[in-house]
Amino acid sequence: MSRFLKLALLASTMASPLAAEPLGLGRSATPEEVSVWDIDVRPDGLGLPEGSGDVMTGDGIYTEKCSACHGVFGEGTGRWPVLAGGQGSLSNARPVKTIGSYWPYLSTVYDYINRAMPFGDAQSLTDDEVYAITAYLLYLNDEVDDDFVLSSDNFNEARLPNEEAFKPDDREEVEFAAFKGEPCMTDCKPSVEITMRAAVLDVTPEETAAKEAAAKAEAETPAPATEEAASEATTPEAAPAPETAPTEAPVEVAEAPAADPALIKAGEKAFRKCKSCHQIGAKAKNRVGPVLNGIVDGPAGAVEGFRYSKAMEAAADGGLVWTHDALTNFLSDPKGYMKGTKMSFPGVRKEEDIEALIAYLRDASE
Fold this sequence. Notes:
Blueprint: H1 3-10, H2 31-37, E1 52-54, H3 55-65, H4 67-70, H5 106-116, H6 127-140, E2 149-151, H7 175-178, H8 208-220, H9 227-234, H10 261-270, H11 310-317, H12 324-332, H13 334-337, H14 351-365
Antiparallel strand pairs: 1-2
Helix pairs in contact: 3-6, 5-6, 9-11, 10-14, 12-14
């Protein structure tokens, strides 16, 4: 039972500090009233309802009920919370606290969705829908594969990456005991001296130390590639034409070896993350993102009828070609590679998934 509910149930029998008799406020909650509120889930799984949900079902429910606030890929829209990514950022000045980077227990994810989501229509989801959305959020954070099914049977087997970083609350044994003694009121300093300032929060920007700290933090953060850098990185300047034609016979370039069928199959599986925005194949049409036919080694921003971002148009005007390296860099960090891109996808984390995706994009276009 939730500790908040317990407090509410105790309110009617709570004794007043000014009177020996109970206050006599309200009445005891009925079992039916208790059951409506008693829906919390503990980390050990106590309180979980029977049910199950798979990643793909969760994808559809999430897109319909959650993506308007949290983004198609959990990247967050506006000031709504980010739900995916942020791994390894907790030691940064501005950590990204998501389910995959910060939250300790999957039960907290399930309980919060079940209790408070969707925003404005809380507790409208069925148990199976909550399981499905929770499974999809695990998938967005690369914790499970797209065929994963979360259920009341395997729920306790799931572990979030940051669980070990959370410690039991020992304040009662450690801190409370240390502060129970009489406070020292002797040998006090004659004056107060400021030894530290909130430089990271920029509360004291006029101070030299604050500016130095901010400059250091900025220097330690990798700068995103600019549009010009993106174009230059993928479009080397052409060498000047020789004054006379070469006398040697032209060198025949060997055809690239056929892609591994297993790699293409893995790429097709990885492409499921892209299907909500992109299509590929003979019947493909532009959706949120452009058709991807012929993208490998093809020019950027070249799909007819699609309205690209200004950043992509600038890269296209600069001659950007989606070579293997260019695609690898873009897929791993779209917004870092091309500042201003409309692509909200946070990026593919695993190198093997990127290789498989490129192989699939090349094969599916042929």
